[in-house]
Design goal:
The protein has helices at residues 12-32, 44-57, 59-71, 73-83, 88-95, 100-109. The chain is mostly helical. α1 (12-32) packs antiparallel against α2, α2 packs across α5 (88-95) and α4 runs antiparallel to α5.
Length: 120
């Protein structure tokens, strides 16, 4: 069979290169953001782009970012605030890491076992 690829639709080398680029952008953003350079918070752009790449290509990273956004609410609000200023594709990818599934799971786990909403 010619042209058959893995389940992710791409080669393994390409995926490794994309993940490496995502990690490099993320680390660059973390290093540049606190620096006193003429443009304040310029490191947020590579940080957001790197996180978007990692969220898009790594399920584990997406879940890690969801947990961080759930625990650190200001970070989540900051990402949502800056998402509308980023390119649309990056904003959509960042939205995939929204902590709503974690909140939903916690809400379901705190229900009383015999509590049914149908019993009125």
């Amino acid at each position: 069979m010619y042209g058959v690829r893995g389940a992710n639709g791409g080669s393994g080398v390409r995926r490794i290169l994309i993940l490496t680029a995502g990690w490099l952008l993320t680390l660059l953003g973390v290093l540049i953001t606190p620096m006193p350079i003429p443009i304040p918070l310029i490191g947020l752009l590579p940080l957001a782009a790197g996180l978007a790449i990692l969220i898009n290509y790594s399920r584990t990273m997406r879940r890690v970012v969801q947990r961080v956004r759930h625990r650190v609410r200001w970070f989540s609000y900051m990402l949502e605030h800056f998402a509308h200023r980023l390119p649309k594709k990056i904003a959509q990818i960042l939205h995939r890491s929204h902590p709503a599934p974690i909140v939903r799971k916690e809400r379901i786990m705190t229900r009383v076992p015999g509590d049914n909403e149908s019993q009125l």
